[in-house]
Design a protein that fits this description.
Heat Shock Protein 90; Helicase, Ruva Protein, domain 3; 6-stranded mixed sheet; binds adenosine-5'-triphosphate; binds magnesium ion
């Protein structure tokens, strides 16, 4: 019996695993799958551009071939890739340049693009077409995946005479759909534009409508710094595994070179805590599980300097404000960037929030009613799905918005934006759409929202009071005609002369005497309270909104022809 069962054991590759479990990559549901595909390719493009110090220009095209069958093109102006790495990077799952690094990037796992290429192959039987422009050479190839072995299959490789710098990907997908929805590729790209004001995006939708999201700044975000793991975040297994890759001769040197916040004082304290039983100057190769465990236990007892947080690059209040004004055109806006801090004792992170009120803020339903909206971002990447499972949503929902004069949060023209930046975003799963419940992260988001809430409540309460006064004014004015008529009968004075006087009394009583025209006053009031953090109207009108035109863009249309 035993032997029979054992003979049934069969090894399978990671590509086979994800073929069976593609929902883990967010590739399920027709709408969600198409948005995920755009997300994976676009996030890679921005990552690559930023790392190479290039202002990203990205073109996205979605073409409908037949119902539930679409073609996707994503073209960037990034550095492209070394020709030899191209097949492996895109045609092999769990291969990437980001997994082993503690660096703030959008990608982490090495399965984003390759997962989409696998999805294309298993739904259409076709490989993905790639044009790569790198160091003056342009190469075309078709990339597929040997699913049983998880290795790339490269076909039709040829150098082409096309001047191009960057990466262009074209793939067909079945079992997907483009719908008019708040979770479609257009909404995804609109949110990319909000959190990435330096990115220029052109999007040609399946109806041949061209959307252009212009950049609002030419400043490329500072390059994120790659950091070493903080010594307190290391566990026994990691201490042993990393030791295998070190070239240091002794354990003490290995620890010093590999981890952050390991100074002479720390090493002295560590040796003292370990006592005579373990000498840190022992050979690296002598480090076994027992010794590593004792070292880790001792490390937890020693005081260390907090992890460095300069590895986090936020969007910045200035840039976030500019792009929100550009896209949401709010009446009132408050943007806040908190100081960086850490979670789990070793991972630095930073929270930014914005509360945008009025204008195009909130979500407009088909019946034209407005609902509030939460926009979640992780390392500037929009999270459109799994809202209910996300720590960001939980933090927003835990706020008592009434305290900030937002009486009916669900039904207000309000957009809450939260961007979480970290060298390691704790996603709930490989689909990367929801942030796990890390208490330190939730607390930071809450604190930021409370500060922003306080700032915005001032404006909202003023607005509410003013609205109430205007309502009273309208009511009193309606009665003033009758009162004037009655006074004419009583005093003999002319109704025409009495009316302006009555209006004057109304304005004085309501402290609206300066107001001749209510709309003008509303604008004045707004200006008055425009403190540094509240936007003004002029700033709004100077900004460009996404342009929508019929497509005439040659580059988007013909890139993969010939
Ligand atoms: N547009 C691009 N330009 C340059 N290099 C790219 C581009 N797209 C992908 N790459 C390279 O291919 C690798 C694999 O991409 P993939 O999306 O599969 O994984 P990832 O981005 O590392 O992680 P994740 O699974 O979280 O997306 C990347 O790590 C990067 O090195
Ligand atoms: Mg990726």
């Amino acid at each position: 019996m035993m032997t029979k069962n054992v003979s049934k054991l069969k090894e399978h590759s990671i590509a086979e695993f994800f073929k069976k479990n593609r929902h883990m990559l967010g590739l399920y549901g027709k709408l969600r799958s198409l948005t995920t595909i755009i997300h994976e390719f676009v996030a890679n493009s921005i990552d690559a551009c930023e790392e190479a110090g290039i202002l990203p220009e990205i073109e996205v095209k979605i073409v409908k071939i037949e119902p539930n069958h679409f073609e996707v093109h994503v073209i960037d102006n990034g550095p492209g890739m070394d020709e030899k790495s191209l097949g492996k990077a895109l045609g092999q799952l769990l291969v990437g340049s980001k997994f082993h690094r503690l660096i703030q990037m959008r990608g982490q796992q090495g399965i984003g693009a390759s997962g989409c290429i696998l999805f294309s192959q298993i739904t259409t039987g076709k490989p993905t077409k790639v044009i790569n422009g790198h160091k003056g050479k342009t190469v075309y190839m078709e990339i597929g995946i040997n699913i049983e072995k998880n290795t790339p299959i490269i076909t039709n490789k040829k150098h082409i005479n096309k001047e191009f710098k960057g990466l262009a990907i074209s793939a067909e997908f079945k079992e997907v759909d483009y719908q008019d929805s708040k979770q479609n590729a257009l909404e995804y790209l609109r949110r990319i534009a909000i959190a990435n004001p330096h990115v220029q995006i052109k999007f040609l939708d399946p109806n041949n409508k061209l959307y252009v999201f212009e950049r609002t700044t030419d400043e490329i975000p500072k390059k994120p710094i790659e950091i070493k793991a903080h010594i307190k975040s290391v566990d026994t297994d990691t201490l042993i595994t990393n030791a295998k890759y070190s070239t240091a001769k002794t354990v003490i040197n290995y620890i010093k070179e590999t981890y952050d916040r390991v100074g002479d004082k720390f090493l002295k304290d560590l040796q003292k805590t370990l006592g005579k039983e373990i000498n840190l100057k022992m050979k690296r190769k002598e480090l076994d599980w027992d010794k590593a465990e004792k070292i880790i236990k001792a490390i937890q007892k020693i005081k260390t300097i907090a992890p460095r947080t300069d590895s986090i690059i936020p969007i910045s209040e200035e840039h976030l404000k500019a792009s929100i004004i550009n896209i949401l055109k709010p009446e009132t806006l408050y943007v806040l960037t908190r100081k960086p801090t850490t979670y789990k004792g070793g991972y630095p992170f930073q929270v930014e929030v914005a509360i945008s009120y009025g204008g195009k803020s909130g979500r407009k339903l088909k019946d034209k009613t407005i609902k509030s909206e939460i926009m979640r971002f992780a390392n500037r990447t929009p999270l459109l799905f799994d809202q209910g499972a996300c720590a960001i949503t939980r933090a927003v929902n835990s706020i008592d918005w009434k305290r900030y004069h937002i009486r009916d949060f669900d039904n207000e023209p309000i957009t809450i934006i939260v961007n979480l930046s970290s060298v390691h975003i704790p996603y709930t799963n490989t689909g990367k759409q929801a942030v796990a419940d890390e208490q330190e992260i939730i607390d930071e988001i809450k604190l930021a929202l409370m500060t922003a809430g306080r700032a915005i409540s001032h404006h909202i309460s003023k607005k509410m009071k003013h609205g109430l006064k205007l309502e009273k004014k309208r009511m009193f004015e309606r009665y003033s005609y009758e009162v004037a008529r009655a006074l004419q009968t009583l005093t003999g004075k002319k109704e025409k002369e009495l009316l302006p006087k009555l209006k004057e009394i109304i304005l004085k009583r309501l402290e609206l005497e300066d107001e001749e025209d209510s709309t003008k006053q509303e604008k004045e009031n707004k200006k008055e309270e425009l403190e540094e953090d509240i936007i003004d109207e002029e700033e709004q009108t100077n900004k460009k909104t996404p342009k929508i035109t019929k497509n005439k863009d040659k580059k988007l249309n013909d890139f993969f022809k010939n």
